[in-house]
Amino acid sequence: MRKLVVSEWLALDGVFDSTTMDQWFYPFDSKQRAAYIQEGVLTSDIFLFGRVTYEMLAPFWSQAKNNEMGIVEKMNSMAKYVVSSKPLNIPWENTTRLQGDLVEEVYKLKQQPGQDIRIAGSSMLVNSLLPSDLIDEYRLLVHPILMGSGKRFFREEKESSRLHLVHTETFSKGVVLLCYQPEK
């Protein structure tokens, strides 16, 4: 069975707002962080997106040509499933809109043979899946900055979930990778 991996980049206070990435993400770039992100893409063969994240990423990746680290080719060739009640207006190769019962559709994807299913961004999607117990791992790249305000990844009204720390790694410039799995 495939693993469903939530892979997120965020500030220490949980902000993951794409409009402020110039403050909390880009200043902390390093070869280590880039290699980690590359590895995550290359070890997955399905991306699962919410509509907002898909519409943010599709215009760039579908037109990208520089395949220096193998990510562009992989991003464009891998299967992409988008959870959206609205039709998708931005084409991106190998994209399917998921319709029907979200939990049932994700469960079916997990039953297929293959590599990890990766969710990036897509906080509404992740928060919708939390009660289902379908998420196998959370991989959080935490950046050493407190934003104070901005869009936060986890909703405040969700129920608590206990997690087990399975891996940590410190990258240069103070970025920390925290990998958690749900306690069963």
From TrEMBL:
Domain Bacterial bifunctional deaminase-reductase C-terminal: 3-177
InterPro entries: DHFR-like_dom_sf, RibDG_C, Riboflavin_Biosynth_HTPR
Coiled coil feature spans: none
One Pfam assignment: RibD_C
Protein's UniProt name: Pyrimidine reductase
Biological source species: Ktedonospora formicarum
Gene Ontology terms, MF aspect: 5-amino-6-(5-phosphoribosylamino)uracil reductase activity
SUPFAM superfamilies: Dihydrofolate reductase-like
Gene3D superfamilies: Dihydrofolate Reductase, subunit A
Gene Ontology process terms (BP): riboflavin biosynthetic process
